[in-house]
């Protein structure tokens, strides 16, 4: 196939412009992104070769190699992983398939300062394109495992890229960066320095399960001689395999490959945990919480889970997968193991490493596996109890968590009846009782008025809509607190949660929710009511007849203080907001 020239897709072009003229101070992360891609490619090849024994691929020494060249001012990151076909290169590297990119770009343009912009990029993830922060030309040479021809992709990041077929590419992918000349004098961006590379790999990629090696710089011939002459008689000498004087020097392995989840918490720094999180989640921001969990005994496993600090843009789209990876005895098995986390915790990221599963487990088998189910139950409990702990010990983190993920967690009230109580305890809501802060059900109950029996709430589209509702008047007048529920999911879960700690949840927009205090009214008040009922009987009958197609019943109420009338539904009926939700869902 001839060399083809392609234009970048508009969104890709805009993103690249931002990378090229990068204002982001932390350029080092490009290397993390490239190593992360290489590591993913190695994982994929290993799994592929397990699945397909006829695959013509070499899996004997899977690794990542980094090769700095000071003279040429290039840096190459190479892997012998799964590689890409020509079509895949065009599809994966030439376009940005991620659905949120357009949104990212528009928000980047609105971003007021650098740190917001950086945060946004972190939230959406930039991956391979981050190479253009440090390089003015990027070349990628790749050959897909099992295929005979390779592909060479090259771009300066401006405008377009070229793609050509190459005959002699080794299996896997090499990314060759031509480092920006303007950074040449800057120590901070000296990506040909072995010292710098060691530092970055240690910092960001230490836990990568494949060896990340650095090719030694080609030293002058005499240096090699001296270095080898100086090698003490060690194991190598004993084996009699001392390399000949002409053999190339050994590459250096830069990462420890230690599984962080297998180490005890006090041995591992927060930063190390955070880097693992970033690798798994493709997020650039630190997580909010790190949760460690291990089980010994008959079914042994270790787990590290993370609560992100920010909801991804696609939290509610079908594409949002769950980010818990499954390992078996340190070997990566699969991403997004949905058998391990319920949908309402789909934002949880992390690793579960089990000792006694087969390396060939499939997703279907996992769904049925009793041990996996036990594990899942424990993970869920642990996540919920961690959030509970955050509420009291790290209030700010909890507030962030709830703002970002509360809407999703509440789905659990419907879908996970076993944990309903635990979930209710970590919920918090807007309320008429406090304009600034959210209130938990426990707090609500604690400040209930004397004689108040129920927990009152009202659902609606927004706080203002609820506050302007005539339903609220009497409650306000009597100083009764009402929870303001404005998330779409609120319409649904309230139906599944009849009570909290013996207190019934009642919608103030529904028929039964007359004020508690009514029952304690004296004889006089009752007589007064009776009198009013008689007085208005004729009007009520007339209204009832006129509105016969619109309403079930017209009655007098004590719930209004200012408005003349309001519409209520019977308890158990579909509320107007729920009707519109159903309509939105096409039901
Ligand atoms: P992400 O890793 O989040 O998917 P990237 O921009 O980092 O996004 O990479 C885009 C895609 O390009 C990857 O998903 C992968 O399919 C492909 N890719 C990138 N680097 C490699 C590599 N070294 N080997 C094989 N495929 C790669
Ligand atoms: Mg990537």
Automatic annotation (TrEMBL):
<feature type="binding site">
    <location>
        <begin position="99"/>
        <end position="100"/>
    </location>
    <ligand>
        <name>ATP</name>
    </ligand>
</feature>
<dbReference type="InterPro" id="IPR003594">
    <property type="entry name" value="HATPase_dom"/>
</dbReference>
<keyword id="KW-0067">ATP-binding</keyword>
<keyword id="KW-0143">Chaperone</keyword>
<feature type="binding site">
    <location>
        <position position="84"/>
    </location>
    <ligand>
        <name>ATP</name>
    </ligand>
</feature>
<dbReference type="GO" id="GO:0005524">
    <property type="term" value="F:ATP binding"/>
</dbReference>
<feature type="binding site">
    <location>
        <position position="98"/>
    </location>
    <ligand>
        <name>ATP</name>
    </ligand>
</feature>
<dbReference type="InterPro" id="IPR037196">
    <property type="entry name" value="HSP90_C"/>
</dbReference>
<dbReference type="InterPro" id="IPR019805">
    <property type="entry name" value="Heat_shock_protein_90_CS"/>
</dbReference>
<feature type="region of interest" description="Disordered">
    <location>
        <begin position="510"/>
        <end position="530"/>
    </location>
</feature>
<dbReference type="Pfam" id="PF13589">
    <property type="entry name" value="HATPase_c_3"/>
</dbReference>
<dbReference type="GO" id="GO:0140662">
    <property type="term" value="F:ATP-dependent protein folding chaperone"/>
</dbReference>
<dbReference type="GO" id="GO:0051082">
    <property type="term" value="F:unfolded protein binding"/>
</dbReference>
<protein>
    <recommendedName>
        <fullName>Chaperone protein HtpG</fullName>
    </recommendedName>
</protein>
<feature type="binding site">
    <location>
        <begin position="123"/>
        <end position="128"/>
    </location>
    <ligand>
        <name>ATP</name>
    </ligand>
</feature>
<feature type="binding site">
    <location>
        <position position="37"/>
    </location>
    <ligand>
        <name>ATP</name>
    </ligand>
</feature>
<dbReference type="GO" id="GO:0016887">
    <property type="term" value="F:ATP hydrolysis activity"/>
</dbReference>
<feature type="binding site">
    <location>
        <position position="79"/>
    </location>
    <ligand>
        <name>ATP</name>
    </ligand>
</feature>
<comment type="subunit">
    <text>Homodimer.</text>
</comment>
<feature type="binding site">
    <location>
        <position position="363"/>
    </location>
    <ligand>
        <name>ATP</name>
    </ligand>
</feature>
<comment type="function">
    <text>Molecular chaperone. Has ATPase activity.</text>
</comment>
<keyword id="KW-0346">Stress response</keyword>
<comment type="similarity">
    <text>Belongs to the heat shock protein 90 family.</text>
</comment>
<keyword id="KW-0963">Cytoplasm</keyword>
<feature type="domain" description="Histidine kinase/HSP90-like ATPase">
    <location>
        <begin position="26"/>
        <end position="183"/>
    </location>
</feature>
<dbReference type="Pfam" id="PF00183">
    <property type="entry name" value="HSP90"/>
</dbReference>
<dbReference type="InterPro" id="IPR001404">
    <property type="entry name" value="Hsp90_fam"/>
</dbReference>
<dbReference type="InterPro" id="IPR020575">
    <property type="entry name" value="Hsp90_N"/>
</dbReference>
<dbReference type="InterPro" id="IPR020568">
    <property type="entry name" value="Ribosomal_Su5_D2-typ_SF"/>
</dbReference>
<feature type="binding site">
    <location>
        <position position="33"/>
    </location>
    <ligand>
        <name>ATP</name>
    </ligand>
</feature>
<feature type="binding site">
    <location>
        <position position="173"/>
    </location>
    <ligand>
        <name>ATP</name>
    </ligand>
</feature>
<dbReference type="GO" id="GO:0005737">
    <property type="term" value="C:cytoplasm"/>
</dbReference>
<dbReference type="InterPro" id="IPR036890">
    <property type="entry name" value="HATPase_C_sf"/>
</dbReference>
<keyword id="KW-0547">Nucleotide-binding</keyword>
<feature type="region of interest" description="A; substrate-binding">
    <location>
        <begin position="1"/>
        <end position="363"/>
    </location>
</feature>
<feature type="compositionally biased region" description="Acidic residues">
    <location>
        <begin position="513"/>
        <end position="523"/>
    </location>
</feature>
<feature type="region of interest" description="Disordered">
    <location>
        <begin position="217"/>
        <end position="252"/>
    </location>
</feature>
């Amino acid at each position: 196939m001839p060399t083809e020239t392609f234009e970048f897709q508009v969104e890709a072009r805009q993103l690249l412009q931002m990378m090229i003229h990068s204002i982001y101070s932390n350029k080092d992360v490009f290397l993390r992104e490239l190593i992360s891609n290489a590591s993913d490619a190695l994982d994929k090849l290993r799994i592929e070769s397990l699945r397909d024994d006829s695959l013509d691929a070499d899996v004997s020494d899977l690794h990542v190699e980094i090769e700095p060249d000071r003279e040429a001012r290039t840096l190459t990151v190479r892997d012998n992983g799964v590689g890409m076909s020509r079509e895949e290169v065009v599809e994966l590297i030439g376009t940005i398939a991620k659905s949120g990119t357009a949104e990212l770009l528009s928000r980047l343009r609105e971003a007021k300062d650098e740190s917001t912009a950086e945060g946004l990029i972190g939230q959406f993830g930039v991956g391979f394109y981050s190479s253009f922060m440090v390089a003015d030309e990027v070349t990628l040479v790749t050959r897909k495992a099992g295929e005979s021809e390779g592909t060479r992709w090259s771009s300066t990041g401006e405008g377009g890229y070229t793609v050509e077929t190459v005959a002699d590419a080794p299996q896997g992918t090499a990314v060759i960066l031509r480092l920006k000349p303007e950074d040449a004098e800057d120590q901070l961006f000296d990506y040909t320095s072995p010292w710098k590379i060691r530092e970055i790999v240690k910092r960001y990629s230490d836990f990568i399960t494949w060896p990340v090696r650095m090719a030694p710089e080609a030293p002058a011939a005499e240096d090699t001689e001296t270095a080898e002459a100086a090698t003490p008689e060690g194991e190598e000498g004993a084996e009699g395999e001392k390399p000949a004087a002409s053999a190339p020097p050994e590459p250096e392995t830069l990462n420890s490959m230690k599984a962080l989840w297998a180490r005890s918490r006090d041995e591992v720094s927060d930063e190390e945990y955070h880097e693992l999180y970033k690798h798994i989640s493709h997020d650039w921001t630190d997580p909010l919480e790190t949760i460690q969990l291990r089980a010994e005994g008959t079914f042994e496993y270790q787990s590290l889970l993370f609560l992100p600090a920010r909801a991804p843009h696609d939290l509610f789209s079908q594409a949002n997968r769950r980010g818990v990876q499954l390992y078996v005895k340190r070997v990566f098995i699969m991403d997004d193991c949905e058998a391990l986390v319920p949908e309402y915790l789909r934002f949880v990221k992390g690793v579960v490493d089990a000792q006694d599963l087969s390396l060939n487990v499939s997703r279907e088998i996992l769904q049925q596996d009793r041990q996996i189910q036990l594990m899942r139950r424990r993970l869920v409990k642990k996540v919920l109890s961690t959030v509970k702990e955050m509420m009291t010990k790290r209030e700010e983190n909890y507030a962030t968590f709830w703002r970002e993920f509360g809407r999703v967690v509440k789905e659990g009230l419907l879908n996970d009846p076993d944990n309903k109580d635990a979930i209710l305890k970590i919920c918090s809501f807007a309320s008429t009782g406090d304009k600034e802060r959210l209130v938990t059900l426990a707090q609500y109950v604690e400040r209930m008025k004397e004689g108040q029996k129920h927990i009152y709430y009202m659902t609606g589209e927004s706080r203002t809509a609820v506050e302007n509702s005539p339903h609220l008047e009497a409650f306000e007048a009597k100083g009764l607190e009402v929870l303001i529920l404005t998330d779409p999911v609120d319409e649904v879960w309230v139906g599944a949660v009849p009570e909290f700690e013996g207190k019934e949840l009642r919608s103030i927009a529904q028929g039964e929710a007359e004020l508690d205090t009514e029952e304690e009214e004296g004889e006089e008040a009752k007589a007064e009511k009776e009198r009013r009922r008689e007085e208005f009987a004729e009007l009520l009958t007339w209204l009832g007849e006129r509105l016969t197609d619109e309403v079930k019943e017209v009655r007098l109420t004590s719930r209004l203080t200012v408005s003349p009338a309001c519409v209520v539904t019977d308890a158990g009926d579909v509320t107007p907001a729920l009707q519109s939700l159903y309509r939105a869902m096409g039901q």
